[in-house]
Amino acid sequence: MTEAAASIRTDLFIGGKFAPARTGLRFAVSNPATGETIADVARGGSEDLDEAVSSARAAVEGGPWKEMTPRQRGRVLTRAADLLASRADEFGQLETRNNGKPIFEAAKIDMPACAEALEYFGGYADKLYGRTLPTRDDAFLFTLREPVGVVGAITPWNFPLLQAMWKIAPALACGNAVVLKPASLTPLTALLFAELLAEAGLPPGAFNVVPGPGESLGQAMAEHPGIDKITFTGETETGKKILRAAAGTVKRISMELGGKSPNVVFADADLEAAARGAFNGIFYGKGEVCAAGSRLLVERPVHDELLGRIVERARKMEPADPLHPKTRLGSLVSERQRDIVARYVEEGEREGARLLAGGRRRDVGGRGAFFEATVFDGVSPEMTIAREEVFGPVLAAMSFSGPEEAVSIGNRVRYGLAAAVWTRDITKALRVVRGLKAGTVWINTYNFYDPGLPFGGYKESGFGRERGLEAMEEYTQVKSVWANLG
Q1: Mean pLDDT per 10-residue run, the chain (486 residues)?
Q2: Cα-atom radius of gyration of the chain, to the nearest Å?
Q3: Domain 3-257+461-481 in CATH: superfamily?
Q4: 114 in catalytic set
Q5: Which of the residues 51, 95, 290, 466 is marked catalytic?
Q6: Global model pTM greater than 0.90
Q7: Is 174 a catalytic residue?
């Protein structure tokens, strides 16, 4: 373990305190860019989960958290936003060391976005209203929005704190208590954030962090009768397991799952802007992005020109030390993930796709889970790399003729998380937007987000929405009231 790890809190966070797991078990967390162990983290089990759920239940049923007004809850979140913004570099450094993403992304993009989410939902806490129904003279009819109760949040490793924040901020703003299970590969910023929330004034029990293995702890959360809602981000197959596990308690579920998003470029687009957008759409975050533009659909007259621009950029993009401020392609999250990406590249070549750039494992300084920025052309919709989520820096390019074929190819996967359309013709853009089965569609840009704009999937990319008013609705339940006036 490195000396820098000495200050990282690595026990479970339950009821406002750090404590080891009941079993005493721990697991190693590594820096994927170096292979070095950063910390040994407490491994939560069923007894720890029970304790965290009990702590959360106590917070929502009595004590200072339940007694806080919505405006007071909002102030806690906005204080947390200010604290996080002031410590963005610290949190970003830890995120980079744990995930392998470039420090530019972690400190300058992810952490400010986390603070923005806290600020947004903090401001929304006292602005969620019920309705009145002026339909009867003999009764007063109205609705109330109330917290769901205890929320179990299961989050992925690609945006460890940001994906958690899209769940934590609205859940707390609505008055719920949260039990968070961060990904086992990347639990460190969640534990650090627990300290920050306590400093911001969040009462004990309202937020708990229990790291542990998804196959056992995640399953236990889905089955737990004391958890009222599960919010999950991760693989589609894991999401299906959670749905089956949660059926026994009929709890509320929302989930954001996999993606294989089409990035559609028409011949009348600004090709330089489209090249930049397509490049960033797949290589930002090392391609370990649910909404990555991993399928590039280019109208035939400009296919070669656009691919040439992207390939030129990809060949210049060198994997490098994630902690260097100029690095734009860091380490994949683990050796295992790099092996998965490498197998998909091999499959793409076997099935006849043309490898134009990258395609190789790399190391930096003789170590690390690095992989080159990779571009395939000549991809058909039936190929594995056009159907399955690679979750790495691998672009699959194909051609189309006209809007109808673009929409047909775009929808020819089981996913429906995101998409993009590049054209100067707004009428054509909007028609294609209507045809694409995706929860988010960008026009002449890619991979931009706002805390007020909902995000979620169609088809096997999940259901429910994060961010915006729609997220607040996910974490509340509606009570109808009939007051007799007769």
Answers
A1: 61 98 98 97 98 98 96 98 98 98 98 98 96 96 98 98 98 98 98 98 98 95 98 97 97 98 98 98 98 98 98 98 98 98 98 98 96 98 98 98 98 98 98 98 98 98 97 97 95
A2: 23
A3: Aldehyde Dehydrogenase; Chain A, domain 1 (3.40.605.10)
A4: no
A5: 290
A6: yes
A7: no
